[in-house]
Amino acid sequence: MDAQACPGKSERLQGTTTVVLVDDHQLAREGMRKILGNDASIEVVGEAESCWEAISLIARLRPGVVVLDVRLRDGSGVEVGRAVRRLAPDSRVLVLSAYDDSQYVVSMVKLGVSGYLTKTSSGEDLIRAVHHAAEGWLVFSPDIADKVASLLRRNGGALLNDGKRNGGYKELGWGQRSSESLTIRESEVLQQMFRGLRNRDIAEAMGISIKTVEVHMHRILLKLGARNRSQAIVKSIGMGYLQGVAVPAGPGDDAEYDPLHNVAVSPRGVEGKTR
User: Fold this and answer.
1) What pLDDT does 130 receive?
2) Residue 6: per-residue pLDDT
3) Where does the pLDDT of residue 231 fall: very low under 50, low under 70, confident under 90, or very high at 90 and above?
4) 2: burial class by Cβ within 10 Å (0-12, 13-18, 19+)?
5) Cα separation, 28 vs 48, whole angstroms
6) Residue 132 and residue 271 in contact, taking contact as beta carbons nearer than 8 Å
7) Maximum alpha-carbon separation in the chain
8) What value does the mean pLDDT take over residues 17-35?
């Protein structure tokens, strides 16, 4: 099957989340399309089964969310994730895969994906994850969340950065972090970012200029060795900078705060606002 844009609604409703499905199994795509079709606010606008098809389709359609498998017939979903970040930076990537190997998880988290679910997740989990990814939340299924937290704690907050092997997985990390600790002001900015505030909102909340927020943000990313907010949040969890910082629960969730992961934990997984 070639990459295809699905027939769209003649007039897209305001607030509709557009989705592109990337999986090399037609049956899996059909199942996901059927599940997501049960939610009137989600529209599957395209499907692809290979890396090249996916990249071409995503660059053209620029969907709100890309549901992506980590293994495709002509390569890795990591390649697609990198391309999405470059060609459609506003699109969120939600991994849905049967593979939960540490190497795959680390590679995808390193890219700053919005979530990682295993295919043992329910249809309801998928719908919730698409909504939360579109809204800027970081969503992990419980087993993936435990794996990420364990890897972060084991490596002092750095997800494997020197290519060496440790415990059976390859170190793929985000680059060497600075030996400098965050200042009190930088920690405060990080906490506001973790709560989901944008630069303008952080500036207003802290009584500083947007330019000052941007300077703090640059220094935070540099010190943590992160490329973006999502990576900074995940690294900060393992390094303890966000210990005790509560975040709002996702819309409609009966979530509660879990100090172990420092994110909102719903009965089905872990969610934290990325920006």
Assistant:
1) 95
2) 60
3) low
4) exposed
5) 11
6) yes
7) 55
8) 96
Sign of CA dihedral 145, 150, 152, 153: positive
β 115-118/92-97 pair status = parallel
At 258, the amino acid letter reads: D
All structural domains of the chain? 4-150 (3.40.50.2300)
Gap between the Cα atoms of 56 and 31, Å rounded: 23
Give me Rg for the CA atoms of the chain. 18
Token couple for 82:
């990198």
User: Model confidence over 123-161: pLDDT tens digits?
Assistant: 999 999 999 999 888 888 888 887 877 776 666 555 544
- Write out the two tokens for 167: 């415990």
pLDDT band per the 50, 70, 90 thresholds, residue 258: very low
Examine the pLDDT at 91 and tell me if it is beyond 90. yes
Answer for the pair 268, 125: CB distance below 8 angstroms, yes or no: yes
Neighbouring C-beta atoms of residue 205, cutoff 10 Å: 14
- Terminal CA-to-CA distance of the chain, rounded, Å? 36
**Phi/psi of residue 196, nearest 5 degrees:** 100, 5
Going by the DSSP 8-state scheme, the letter that residue 39 receives in this structure is: S
Q: Which residue has the tokens 């950065």?
A: 161
CA 271 to chain centre: 10
CA distance linking residue 169 with residue 163, whole number of Å: 10
Answer for the pair 215, 202: CB distance below 8 angstroms, yes or no.
no
Whole-prediction pTM value? 0.59
